[in-house]
């Protein structure tokens, strides 16, 4: 054995301090050694009078050859077999993430670093929830991150000696959590539905969708309520809420079924029966309804009439004479009422004209008949019926007096008045009797 050559070279790495240490056995009282670390055409040297050397400026990810050369009177720089050492891996850089919103799978990628045998990617929340994946390449995947959390992503490079964490990190927002506690309140009058839910972790905004066989309706909001407009009457919708951030959408919430109010009746028809003053209403139905409510409301604010039926027609008996009524029909299903149908106005028969009186004009052989105004009348018709079949009449649209002309002399006439409107005639007024003649006027009133 060469008495000058250092023996038992032993190299080690302090990963935390980034220091490579070398020790050896000295010979022949040598007290000065030249120690060199060589890698990739780069040499780092130092001098020591002991049998240990420490290198603090070596590069990461390099395989160094360590050489010890003694210098003394007897040993002029003779070197022995070098020692080899792998330094710590270089820190991974350029860390990036890519998230699959549907599966919540996250792919972590980085730039491969010198001296690394494998890598460990750590995805961790501030409260300690973590997921890891390992790879011997420059990427790995983490499945099924917990929803709605902000994660910090780091990568650790490892070899046989050391584990080195990346000096940089990146952040990742996982897919928002699906909304829960969905609640819906429908408004049959406006065909809208107010949808509410509990806040979702990670959500920036929400989309609410109502789907049916007829149409789809949606709304977006950053709040936890949203109003669905323009729903179709008599329809069933499946309502779901999706939470969103700037990159991903959650899975849809559990579906809620919403049934809108029934549709209002169509083609409403209203007729009045003149002799009885009965109002008959009929209509067509659209969609399902349990029953129908018919309202007959006088325009003067009097007492209204109504009927409740499972059919598509009903009658209101003997309504008040001389009134205009507004009629509409409402469909009912369960506790939901439709919007009112189109409102139809109709007049009942005019009231019987009261207070009839009369006088004869012997010069013109005519009679002047007067009466009090009848409610609901647009015009009046006066009839004079005499003995032996003689008849005469007159009409007026604005006055309550009318002249019946061309009466026969010496005839007893019965006079009566009928009020009219566009739908009906009233019952005849009381009858008065006037007898024509040259000098004598006789007046009889019969009830």
Please, could you describe this protein's structure?
This protein has five domains: 7-86, Immunoglobulins (Immunoglobulin-like, Sandwich); 93-174, Immunoglobulins (Immunoglobulin-like, Sandwich); 180-260, Immunoglobulins (Immunoglobulin-like, Sandwich), CATH 2.60.40; 266-347, Immunoglobulin-like (Sandwich); 357-436, Immunoglobulins (Immunoglobulin-like, Sandwich), CATH 2.60.40. It is 0% helix and 52% strand. The protein has no helices and 38 strands. The chain has strands at 7-14, 19-25, 33-39, 42-48, 52-55, 63-70, 83-86, 93-100, 105-111, 118-124, 130-135, 139-142, 150-158, 163-165, 170-173, 180-187, 192-198, 205-211, 216-221, 225-228, 236-244, 256-259, 266-273, 278-284, 291-298, 305-309, 313-316, 324-333, 336-337, 344-347, 357-361, 366-370, 379-386, 391-396, 401-404, 412-420, 431-435, 442-446. Strands 10, 11, 13, 14 and 15 form a five-stranded antiparallel sheet that branches. Strands 25, 26, 28, 29 and 30 form a five-stranded antiparallel sheet that branches. Strand 16 and strand 17 (192-198) form a beta hairpin. It is rod-shaped. The model has no long low-confidence stretch (mean pLDDT 91). This is Fibronectin type-III domain-containing protein. Residues 178-263, 264-351, 353-439 form the Fibronectin type-III domain. It holds the Pfam family fn3. InterPro entries: FN3_dom, FN3_sf, Ig-like_fold.
Question: Layout of helices and strands, plus pairs?
Answer:
Layout: E1 7-14, E2 19-25, E3 33-39, E4 42-48, E5 52-55, E6 63-70, E7 83-86, E8 93-100, E9 105-111, E10 118-124, E11 130-135, E12 139-142, E13 150-158, E14 163-165, E15 170-173, E16 180-187, E17 192-198, E18 205-211, E19 216-221, E20 225-228, E21 236-244, E22 256-259, E23 266-273, E24 278-284, E25 291-298, E26 305-309, E27 313-316, E28 324-333, E29 336-337, E30 344-347, E31 357-361, E32 366-370, E33 379-386, E34 391-396, E35 401-404, E36 412-420, E37 431-435, E38 442-446
Antiparallel strand pairs: 1-2, 2-5, 3-4, 3-6, 6-7, 8-9, 9-12, 10-11, 10-13, 13-14, 13-15, 16-17, 17-20, 18-19, 18-21, 21-22, 23-24, 24-27, 25-26, 25-28, 28-29, 28-30, 31-32, 32-35, 33-34, 33-36, 36-37, 37-38
